[in-house]
Amino acid sequence: MNIKEIFHKRNLVFSFEVFPPKNNSPVKSIYRALNELSDLKPDFISVTYGAGGSLINNKTTEISSLIKNVYNIEPLAHLTCISSKKDDIDKITERLELEDVSNILALRGDDNGDSRKDFNYASELISYIEKKKRFNIISACYPEGHIENKSIDMEIDNMKRKIDSGTSSFISQLFFDNNIYYDFLDKINKNGIKTPIQAGIMPVINKRQIERITELCGAKIPHKFSKIMNKYEYSPEALKEAGIAYAVEQIIDLASSGAQGIHLYTMNNPYVAKRIKENIKTVIKTINN
Ligand code: FAD
Predict the structure, then answer these.
(1) DSSP characters over 130-181
(2) Could you tell me the distance, in angstroms and rounded to a whole number, from the CA of residue 48 to the centre of ligand 1?
(3) Is 5 a catalytic residue?
(4) What are phi and psi of 115, to 5 degrees?
């Protein structure tokens, strides 16, 4: 069942994101995390994609294949296009099809000034993959606007382009203030967009992580959250506890307000994912009954 079909079956879709092991670490260094995450029975697991490495034998494809063929969970392979030629995309999609991976999160990736490109924007990659008629395509959206362009109106125009090109659902950039997300959904509704959107939630368990993230994506930090960060900055266990509780509260509020999905950025940390799932499993079950 691909992710589009999962959205038809569930009122609330719950999924995880993992990233491939960094540098020269072998794929097997993620096995333990995958074992534990798969025990939590998410609806799907997405695998991020980084530039570099062999295009065809990239770790994203290998891990997505493991998720599908060993853990029997639907995988979502991320794919960026900013420095790719059509031929590169053909090779990767052929390999994904061989491995029975049918969901792709089609992204532009961060602009690195590489001139060797066939694609300028994610919508162009989406159209290109859609023509193959073999994949369910998902895209990114930005409740606070994209870092290069904070206009929500332009973000909504871009979402429409992505839908017209073949996107079946969206996963949002992480955010820490649910009210910003609700305002975003309001604008989306007013624009007649009916495509399902999953809220991206990142449990923050150390202060350096949050500083890096906000620098990268520009997510606003609500006062309530910065108080927690400042208070427990030097008490890692207390900060972890509070970060998990904050994410749980965000998720329960979103679920109770009719969110169609939650995508948890696990940072390959099954302990944190497990603690969160324990706290929300009855809520998810009730909504999906
Ligand atoms: P686009 O939709 O192409 O948008 C990029 C910018 O261009 C935006 O400012 C948009 O407004 C503008 N734009 C788009 N179309 C046009 C147009 N026709 N004319 C003018 N302006 C236009 N990065 C990775 O490298 N690997 C990953 O695995 C990864 N996973 C991610 C998962 C999620 C859920 C999210 C939210 C982001 C992820 N990213 C990942 C980061 C992503 O690659 C960056 O945010 C990137 O800068 C934008 O990607 P996009 O697909 O949204 O781009």
Answers:
(1) HTT---EEEEEE-TT-BTTB--HHHHHHHHHHHHHHTEEEEEEEE-S-HHHH
(2) 13
(3) no
(4) -90, -10
The answer to whether residues 159 and 188 touch, using CB atoms and an 8 Å cutoff, is: yes
Q: 12: which 2 tokens? A: 């609330």
Give the Å distance between the CA of 132 and the centre of ligand 1: 22
How many helices (DSSP H) and strands (DSSP E) are in the chain? 11, 8
d(C-alpha 19, C-alpha 17), whole Å: 7
Q: What is the pLDDT along the chain (289 residues), one digit of tens a residue?
A: 899 999 999 999 999 999 999 877 888 889 999 999 999 999 999 999 985 555 555 899 999 999 999 999 999 999 999 888 999 999 999 999 999 999 999 999 987 777 668 999 999 999 999 999 999 999 999 999 999 989 999 999 999 999 999 999 999 999 999 999 999 999 999 999 999 999 999 999 888 888 888 888 889 999 999 999 999 999 999 999 999 999 999 999 999 999 999 999 999 999 999 999 999 999 999 999 9
Pocket test for ligand 1, best of 59, 80, 107 (most atoms within 8 A of CB): 107
The one catalytic residue in 5, 17, 124, 237 is: 17
Give, rounded to a whole angstrom, the gap between the first and last alpha carbons of the chain.
Answer: 19
Does the CB atom of residue 122 touch ligand 1 within 6 A?
yes
Structure tokens at 80: 């960026």
Counting from 1 in the atom list of ligand 1, the atom nearest the Cα of 142 is 36
Q: Is the CB of 197 under 6 A from ligand 1?
A: no
